[in-house]
Amino acid sequence: MIPKPLRPFIMRLLQATGDNELKWNEGADDAYFATRKNADLHIRYFFDSDTGEGGYTFRILRGDGDAFFTVSNNEDDYYLMRDLYSAISVNAAGGEQIVSGLFD
Fold first, then answer.
1. What are the tens digits of pLDDT across the range 2-11?
2. What is the pTM of this model?
3. Cα separation of 3 and 26, whole Å?
4. C-alpha separations of 96 from 20, 73, 90, 91, 93 in Å
5. Residue 61 CB-density burial (10 A; 0-12 exposed, 13-18 middle, 19+ buried)
């Protein structure tokens, strides 16, 4: 579950990612990271084939603070995190530029 104090931030992050207000970079193991002002943002997709559980982990590091949460595929917030992760993957790949000119 997305912790209640972070929900407005996650919604704003989804919008900012789609609007290219920040740049995400691809990391290892289905992870992405970005830096905004003095904060480091990390998101990672996980899937356990033994249990069938999947989901997303999200971490924000800022100064001495470190907030971390996980949303699994059986929670309501899963779809919001899936949308965020998808937007992040497109952002990291170059956004609209990745498809620019494909039908010209």
1. 999 999 999 9
2. 0.90
3. 25
4. 10, 28, 8, 8, 9
5. middle
